[in-house]
Amino acid sequence: MTSIYEFKTRTLSGKETDLSAYRGKVLVIVNTASQCGLTPQYADLQKLYEQYHAQGLEILGFPCNQFGGQEPGSNEEVAEFCQVNYGVTFPMFEKIDVNGPEAHPLYRYLKQQAPLEGSEDNGIQWNFTKFVVDREGRVVKRFEPGVQPMEMESEIRRLL
């Protein structure tokens, strides 16, 4: 794959989605978990979405259970948790693997395009690793889990 727009995935409700639907948008792609110390990042991700969605920002959440089993629920449970606890309205997708032999092809691509400095495999280190993609579909920046979503705001504004 040579473009972010060539990937397909499924929403939490099981609907197949072609990422080309997001062509021309600035994207934040993030692996999420509901039972993680970083889970409160959902609140600021939602805040960014509300603030910049009309200008072309999309946040795409990908639940993952690979880190400490912190996303054990079904897709339906994930959807309910995100809505009830954080009022999430940005698109959320089916649970996926982000590392290892079963890693979703999208995440293989993201890691290749924005390698982790000092890492041989560019692996995702934990929940809430965030990738920013420009309007042309290029992965421009990788933010590690400890970076709070609001710390990405200047980068998002620059791309919008």
TrEMBL record:
Where is the Thioredoxin domain positioned along the sequence?
1-160
Origin: domain of life: Bacteria
Keyword field contains Oxidoreductase: yes
One Pfam family this sequence matches: GSHPx
Q: Which GO terms describe its biological process?
A: cellular response to oxidative stress
**Signal sequence region:** none
- Gene3D superfamilies to which the protein is assigned, alphabetical: Glutaredoxin
Extract one GO molecular function annotation from the record.
peroxidase activity
Keyword tags: Oxidoreductase, Peroxidase
Supply the InterPro entries for this chain. Answer: Glutathione_peroxidase, GPX_AS, GPX_CS, Thioredoxin-like_sf, Thioredoxin_domain
* Active site per database record: C36
Q: Which family does it belong to?
A: Belongs to the glutathione peroxidase family.
Its protein name is Glutathione peroxidase
